[in-house]
Amino acid sequence: MSSQPLLPQERLLSSSNPKRRMILTTILVPLLLIAGIVFVSIKGDGKPKDNLGLAKYYLQSSPVIDGHIDLPEFARAFYGNDITKFDLNKPTKGHVDIPRIRKGSLGAFFWSIFVECRDDNGIDFLNPTFQVRDTLEQIDVSFNLIEKYSDTFAFASTSDQVEMVIKQGKVASMFGLEGGHMLGNSLAVLRMYHKLGVRYMTLTHSCNNAFADSAGIFESVEERWGGLSKFGRVLIPEMNRLGVIVDLSHVSDKTALQALSITRAPIMLSHSAARHFNNMSRNVPDDILAKIGRGKHQVDGVVMVNFFPVFASANPDEVDVAYIADEIEYIVGKTSKHHVGIGSDFDGIESTPKGLEDVSKYPHLFAELLKRGWTEHDLSLLAGGNFLRVFKGVEDVSKKLQSDGWTPSQEIYDKRIDLKPIEWEL
Ligand SMILES: *[C@@H]1O[C@H](CO)[C@@H](O)[C@H](O)[C@H]1NC(C)=O
Ligand SMILES: [Zn+2]
What we know:
Radius of gyration: 22 Å
Number of strands: 9
Protein name: Dipeptidase
Bound molecules: 2-acetamido-2-deoxy-beta-D-glucopyranose, zinc ion
Keywords: Dipeptidase, Hydrolase, Membrane, Metal-binding, Metalloprotease, Protease, Transmembrane, Transmembrane helix, Zinc
Helix content: 40-55%
EC number: 3.4.13.19
């Protein structure tokens, strides 16, 4: 088939065993060729002629990798994390269930690990809370769902695993942490989350934290650090060393610009709309888009577009498939087709665009872009190719830093007093 898949297929055919390789070439290849000729002569090239059919056809080999889905939060908010209380094989009240995942060609997604910001954290963010416990519960409920529905989901924490799981026809399930406030001000906690599979972290959610200032959501919050704190400047290299992707969704502009100047690895925005369309501090502005790329003074990255109409537009009722396609094309115009992706925010948003109501609808967005002249290759980059390039880049930097001798940061938040060593008395 002429289709140019996101995930290279050659590994499926390659074999280290010379005998098997001979069988492949002498028997299988001619057979496949004959079958192909017969098939094409009967069926044409087998490609659907309508845009929606063609979009679905292309998504079979390059399925959607969504940067942000709030399924764990859906479980917590509506069922107290009791996974016996809902059935993902049946229609849920949210935007995500297994039949709709299959219909929409969702091949992988980040399960958003999220607990709310608290407003009683105190000026130094030191008041004790249960946020670390609650975060662990969100990781636990995600693992429980992946295991319960193991015919559909498979946990993945490397780019290779994502590709392998997609090839097996399952949905690669990665974890992304939505906010530095869930670290309890501790790099040790970050390292343990990494061991549990967390592969990105938005530096903030909608509140400032010990590491960085947030953009706020519906109104900007008063800045505390003027971007990154001193500790935040230690956090980013530690994320680079571990291989946790620096995610700039939710952060203030100053935080984003400073993080871009510090990071040694590619970055992502897991679920952001463009500020050009709606002047909200939560949305990504042009001057930050200008820093994302592979040119001089730029950082490689992927901007995964949020579907929430309230972020997309000051007039949310107008947001439909074409509007989201406009946003994607705008971000492409400011960066390139190598820097866009999908970060729907499904199950975490109260309304959805017309025509993109749930995970079954991704193909409609791809059909809209086909109508606008996007090629199969372009679509495969948007669907997940760009994200995978960024993820691999982050993994490479992590390996390099560790082989250069970088060791776990011993830095602690300077406002903590509980880790003061006691003096030895002889
Ligand atoms: C966007 O909003 C900010 C903050 O409210 C304001 O300073 C700025 O002038 C606005 N920009 C435009 C183009 O309206
Ligand atoms: Zn969010």
